[in-house]
Design goal:
Oligomer: heterodimer
Number of strands of chain B: 22
Distance between the termini of chain B: 59 Å
Structural class of chain B: alpha/beta
Strand content of chain B: 15-25%
CATH architecture of the largest domain in chain B: 3-Layer(aba) Sandwich
Number of helices of chain B: 22
Helix content of chain A: 40-55%
CATH superfamily of the largest domain in chain B: Thiamin diphosphate (ThDP)-binding fold, Pyr/PP domains
Low-confidence stretches of chain A: none
Structural class of chain A: alpha/beta
CATH topology of the largest domain in chain B: Rossmann fold
Largest sheet of chain B: 7 strands, mixed
Chain lengths: 189, 589
Amino acid sequence: MNVKNVLIAGVGGQGTILAGRILAAVIAAAGYDLKVSEIHGMAQRGGSVVTQVRWGERVFSPIVPPGAADAVLAFEKLEALRWLPWLRPGGRMLVNDQRVDPMPVLTGAAVYPENAAALLAAAGAAVTFCDGIDLARRAGSAKAVNLVLLGLLSRHLEFSPAEWEQAIRQAGPEKYLAANLAAFRLGAI
Amino acid sequence: MRQLMTGNEAIARGAWEAGVRVATAYPGTPSTEITENAARYPEIYAEWSPNEKVALEVGLGASIAGGRALVAMKHVGVNVAADPLFTAAYTGVTGGLVLVSADDPGMHSSQNEQDNRHLGRAAKIPILEPADSQEAKDFTVAAFSLSEEFDTPVMLRITTRAAHSRSLVQLGAREERPLPPYSKDARKYVMIPAYARLRHTAVEARLAALRELAETTPLNRVEWGDKSIGIVTGGVAYQYVKEALPGASVLKLGLSFPLPRRKITEFAQTVAQLYVVEELEDFWETYLRAWGLPVRGKEIFPRTGELQPETVAAALAADTGRPSRLPTSPPPAVAGAEPPARPPVLCPGCPHRGLFYVLRKMRLIVAGDIGCYTLGCLEPLNSIDTTICMGASIGAAIGMEKTRGEEFARRLVAVIGDSTFIHSGVTGLIDAVYNNAQTTLLILDNRTTGMTGHQDNPATGRTLRGEWRERQEIDLARLCRAVGVNRVTTVDPFEMELMEETLRTELAAAEPSVVISRRKCALIDREAARPPLYVDQAECTGCFRCMRLGCPCLSRREQKAAISDQCVACGLCAQVCAAGAIKTTGEAQ
C-alpha cells in the first residue's frame, strides 16, 4: 500500500500529543511500519504544534511533505489554515470549530482571519467542522476535545472501533477513561 | 514484538542493553528525554549534573573506574563540555564512554544550529549518526563496543528530527558487564605534558585504525540501485533521499567520521552522477572534493535549517532532470495573506510575566539568558536586549558597564533563571564581585528547569532519582552571599510594586546586588490556580493597559478587555488596571 499521512495540528497545550500517541498505537497494533514526528521544547508554550503520523509497509521520512496529507486534524481554525497546504488533492480537513487568538492578534499586530470556513472551502478542501468543546462537555470533560477529534478522524480511517478503544484504554489513566471513551464515540458518529 | 520509541528513548534503551552503569546530563532540547529515560532503569545511576562539563567529567570518572557511561547534551552543551572532551580524547577510556550530541538543525529550541560533526572531528573521536529509532538503539550499543575496542570516547550525533520521532524498535536483553579490578594508570589518565605527548601519538594511530574500520564496518553500507545516480548520505537525510529517489544507489554513512576513502571513491567511480545529501554543513562533501571526486552538494541543497523531504526531492529533480516523486504541484494555499504566526508565549500565571512588565515599565536595559524567560523578548513585553548562551547575561552586563560606565549600569540588569545561574551564572557573579562591577542581577527562581519540561536542579535539591534532602539543596541567597554579594533580596514577582521599588534601590547601589524573584512555575504550582478573574464591563475604560502584560487569557472584545477561562487568577492584570475593573469571581457575589 501507499504510505498514509495524517497531520494533527493545534496550539501547545490542546492535547495534540496524546491524540497522536493513540493514533500511533492503533497503527502499530495493526502491524504497519510507522513514523511519528513531533517537536518538543520552546514551541510547546502556547505556540503552533503539529504531530505528523505516517504508516504503510515501509516508511522512511518521519515528516510529511506539503500536498501529501490524507487528512489534517486541526484543533483550531487558524492552525487548519496554516497546515492547509499539506493536504493532498482529495484529502480531508477536519476542524475543531474553536478560535484561539495568537499573541500577534491579541497585540493588534496581526488580524485573525474571520472567515476560516470560507477560506478553506475556497481552496477546494473537503472540510468537516466539529464543535469539539461542546461534544467533550457532553462526554463529561471539556478537556477530552482531543478524543472527540480523534473520533472524527476515525470515521475516515480503516481501523475498527474495537482497535481504537483498545488503544484509548492503554493510553490514559483509569479515572479519565469513561469520559475519553464517551468523547471518542461522540466524535466517531 | 517491536516497540514504538522516540530516538531518545531508544538511546536510553541501547545504553541499558549495553550494560551502562552511569548516565549523566544537563537538560537541553532535544536531548533531555535520553537521561530521563535512562533514569527509569534501576541498574543505571542517572543524574542531572549542574552543567555539561561536570556531566562529562562524571562520565569520564565512571569510565576510568571501569564502568560504561552515557553522557547526553544538546549541541551547544558540547561547547561547555569541550574542555574535558578534548582531553578525554587523549586519555581514552577503561569502560566505554559515549557522548550524545543532540543537534538542532532548524533551531526549534536553540540559539544556533552548529553542526557538531565539526566538534567530534576536532576532538579526534569517532562519530556515529543514526537515522531512526532502531539505529539509535543499535548504534548506541555499537558505540560502546567501539569505545572500548579503540580506547576512545565516541560521539553519537542525533538531530532533533531523529531524537523526537517515533519508530519501531526491536528490543534486546541487557548485557551485564562485571567491573574489572581497578588499576592505576597514570601515563594514561594524568595528562601532564610528558604523558600527553605519548597519548597524542596514540590518538593519531587510533584515527588511522578507525579509518580502516570505516572501510569494512556494517555501519557504512551501500544500497545498490540505479547506477546512473549515486548519493552519499546519512542521518535523517538518508530518509529523505529514500523518499525522493527510492531507486538510486545510496552509500549510507553510519560512521560519520572518520570516513572510508576507498569505499567512497569506489562508489563514486561506479555511479554516473554523484551527490552528497547532508543536513547543515558540507562536512562530507569537503572530503570528497579534496579527494578530487566530481560531486554535487551544497550548491543545490541548503546549508541552513532542517532538510525537508520536498526540498531534497525538488533539488535532485531539478539537477538530474528526472521528475520528483513527491508532490510538486502547488498545494492549495489560503487565498490572501499568510495566516498570522503563533509564537510561543509565557503561560497563564507565569511568574516571569510581572517581572518583565516591571522591567519594560522602568525602561531598563536587560542582559538576558537562556530559559522560558527568553520569551520576555517578544511583544508586548519586549524587554530583553541580549541573549547569547547559558550564563552569558552577567558577563554581558559587566562588559556593558565597563564600557559605558556606572551611570549606564544604573539602568542595566542581568536576568537569569535558577538552573542557568547554577549552570554557569555563578562564575559571572564572582567576576562582578572580584572586578568591582555594580551589577544588579535578577535570578528568576521558579523552582524548576522550565523550558526543557520541568527537570529538577541543584536549587530544588531533588535529584533525577527523586531523592531530596535539605543538605542537597543549594540555597541561592546563601550562595550569592558566599561569593561576596552583600545585597541579596528575595521578592515575589507577583508583587509588582515591591519589585519595582526593590529594583530602584538595588540599581542605585554602588556595589553588586542580587534580587531573587522567587515563585514556582505555574505549571508545577497547581495549588496556586484559582477560578478565572473577570472584567466588570461597566468599569472597564478600554485603556488596555492590561494587554501590555502579554497574557494569552486577555483579549479585546468590543472596546473592552475580556478574560478567557484559561485564567488562573494570578492577579497581575488586576494590579495594573487603573480603573479597578478586573475582579475575582468572589467579589461578584
